[in-house]
Design brief:
The chain has helices at 2-18, 49-60, 87-104, 115-118, 130-135, 156-166, 182-194, 197-205, 229-237, 249-259, 261-267, 272-276, 290-293, 335-363; strands at residues 35-40, 66-72, 137-139, 173-177, 207-212, 242-246, 316-319, 326-329, 383-387, 392-396, 408-414, 425-426, 433-437, 446-455, 462-471. The protein has 472 residues and is of the alpha/beta class. The strands form 3 sheets. The chain has an 8-stranded mixed sheet. β7 and β8 form a beta hairpin. α2 (49-60) runs parallel beside α3 (87-104), α6 packs across α7 and α10 packs across α14 (335-363).
């Protein structure tokens, strides 16, 4: 745990660097988007419909993420990855090309930047052109497993990852692995061959890898962890690389989507060009989506601290499901149960958020999210407070607002922490202003309080602000 703690400290510092100013929306200063790279085994709807679904949702949020790359690559159902399957990614990008003019109306954006400017840093709220996204779509590794890592396995995707890490940019790069992360493993191998140990460490520190289970192999051999290059990454580089291995949120995303499929038929499918390429589920619905929900800049969680619950669940550093290597994961109790409970809690809000965006894609009109302001501050990063035992903390979200003038409702709650049996009392947790009373036995503890705000407009959209209370 000493290693995990020191690594988390480095990552929290980098989060602070890239969220040091406020969001442009609402008339304040600008903040840069989080950088993400997608590795997807997207294919025909009769084989991989969930990757098509997640790709639609991703591009409906293209104003929230700086999409540095989308690599078509191997997964459970394709080794080697058929090159002609990449047409399904092209189809989703073409749909975005049709819908982006409507999506831009959500923020009042009138035009795109020129090509050189789009290749630079993008502020939160900027909708990139379809041409920009096409320029970042390319082939990754077509073969799975540690056995193919080495000469002959380089790809346009692995080469781009090295160039991205070399850019003069303090922001971390989140790798969202919808299939296997073999493309990244190859980039690591290449850097190891050609650069010094110090340069390799710097390269690894640049990335965070969120894997939807372990798909660097065929499904029939999914328990053979030693086959996967993911295990090699965990074994060799757990001190330098944040690797999140999700075994909770993706399962819930699949099952909750299936049980709520009628809502997808009503509010997602057929809405705009993107909705027209959103297929019906086969195995489950959008099982890969939690990889970028974890990075979603909505004020709920700092992705560089995986213990903080977000739309992609929560994780702790410990033994991974192979029982040999270590990662940030959530496969064991009690954390799996805790993460599962919150994933169910958040599901209606994250679905409604998506449905509202698809309405914008379809009609160019719709609802906006409320803006959370706590104790006079509006920010995506957590509000950190220090208090004493017995103190009564005053928290005020009455300065929050809604761009559409909708009425707001409030809910304040503490995130459950494994091993903690009680949290401080909250006075009137459904009001805009609350008092948190710290007990005499709270010394040395840290509490995470969430201010959750809903509007009463279409789909009842949400805003969040996390408050971290450290008790002296």
């Amino acid at each position: 745990m000493k290693t995990a703690t020191s690594l988390a400290g480095i990552m929290l510092f980098s989060w602070a660097l890239c969220t040091s100013c406020s969001e442009k929306t609402g008339g304040t200063a600008q903040v840069l988007k989080p950088r993400i790279v997608i590795m997807t085994d997207i294919g025909p709807a009769e084989v991989e419909p969930d990757d098509n679904e997640s790709a639609v949702r991703l591009l409906a949020y293209a104003d929230r993420f700086e999409i540095e790359g989308i690599f078509t690559t191997i997964g459970w159902n394709c080794d080697p990855y058929p090159q002609d399957w990449s047409v399904y990614l092209t189809r989703v990008i073409d749909a975005y090309h049709t819908d982006v003019q409507n999506l831009m109306k959500r923020s009042g954006q009138k035009s795109f930047r020129n090509s050189d400017e789009e290749q630079g840093r993008q502020e939160l709220g900027y909708w990139p052109s379809a041409d920009y996204i096409r320029s970042r779509a390319m082939m990754g590794s077509r073969r799975a497993g540690i056995g193919v890592i080495g000469e002959g396995n380089d790809s346009p995707g692995s080469e781009l990852l090295i160039r991205l890490a070399d850019e003069d940019d303090d922001r971390p790069i989140w790798l969202c692995s919808w299939g296997g992360a073999n493309t990244f493993s190859q980039a690591v191998w290449r850097v190891k061959q050609e650069r010094s140990p110090e340069e390799l460490k710097k390269f690894l520190n640049k990335f965070r890898l969120y894997t939807i289970t372990d798909q660097d192999m065929q499904y029939s051999m999914r328990m053979n962890r030693a086959y996967s290059s993911h295990q090699w990454l965990r074994r060799e580089y757990s001190n330098e690389l944040m690797l999140v291995w999700d075994e909770s949120a993706w399962l819930n995303q699949n099952e909750l989507g299936k049980s709520n499929w009628s809502k997808y038929e009503q509010f997602i499918q057929g809405k705009g060009a993107l909705g027209k390429v959103y297929p019906k589920f086969l195995w489950g619905v959008e099982g890969d989506t939690p990889s970028f929900l974890h990075v979603m800049p909505n004020g709920l969680n700092d992705p560089d601290d995986p213990t903080q619950i977000g739309w992609g669940g929560c994780h702790q550093f410990g033994i991974s499901p192979d029982r040999e290597t270590y990662a940030w994961t959530n496969w064991q109790q009690p954390l799996k149960g805790i993460s599962n409970t919150y994933e169910h809690k958040f599901y209606p809000d994250e679905f409604n958020d998506f449905a509202a965006r698809m309405q914008w894609a379809d009609t160019g009109k719709g609802n906006h999210n409320p803006i959370a302001v706590v104790n006079g501050t509006q920010d995506l990063k957590p509000l950190e407070l220090t208090a004493r035992t017995g103190e009564e903390l005053q928290l005020d979200a009455s300065g929050s607002s809604d761009p559409d003038g909708d009425r707001l409702t409030f809910s304040w709650w503490f995130q459950e922490i494994p091993g903690e049996t009680a949290c401080p009392a909250i006075s009137d947790p459904e009001s805009a202003k609350v008092t948190v009373t710290l007990s005499d036995d709270s010394a040395g503890k840290t509490y995470h309080l969430i201010c959750e705000i809903h509007d009463d407009g279409p789909f009842n959209l949400t805003a969040y602000r996390r408050i971290i209370i450290k008790v002296r």
